[in-house]
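Dear Dr. H.,

I hope your travels went smoothly. While you were away I took the liberty of generating a structure for the chain from your last submission, since the lab meeting agenda had it listed for discussion. I wanted you to have the full record in hand beforehand rather than looking at slides cold. The sequence, exactly as received, is reproduced here:
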Amino acid sequence: MDFSKLPQVAGFVVEGEVFDPRTFLLSSMTATEAAAFLLFCWPKFTEYRGGVFLSFLFDKPAIDKWFAHVNDDVRAVESVVNHVHLWDVLPPKSEPEHELLGELAEQVGAMWRSALSEEFADRTFVVTVAEETTDYGPTVSFQSS
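The corresponding predicted structure, in token form, is as follows:
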């Protein structure tokens, strides 16, 4: 990630040096915001009806409706429920941030893969990162394989 292109960090980036996020975070983010973002990046999961779902998106009645709609296809329900558009979580405020979201989506996908692997070592999952040309902005989703 090239932080030098992001206007929000202009005063925190020294040309030719590696960006040190500590001072920027100290002035820009609270511990609560950091905790919420970490929960998004390394989420908790809920097991239900043979599927695995992001706990922050788990809505039993809605999931039951999806199961009925797709004839109890667990993978289909997982792919719908575990589907997050980064624009809906981190709306870009500048063109450089817009471009950064694709890289962030890749990183979030990698963290979801690791979190799933750590919690469900006996199962395999497909984590998908879609570019904005194939979905509504950069999107991360997962389902059982």
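Two observations you may find useful: Residues 95-119 form the longest helix (25 residues). The beta strands are 45-48, 51-54, 83-85, 125-130, 139-144.

With kind regards,
E. W.
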